[in-house]
Amino acid sequence: MKITGNTVLIVGATSGIGKELARSLHALGNRVIVASRRRELVDQMIADHPGMSGIPVNVNDPVSLANFTFEVRNRFPEVNVLFANAGICRSEDMTSEDGKARSFNVRRASRESPTLSHT
Question: Is position 1 within any domain?
Answer without folding.
Answer: no
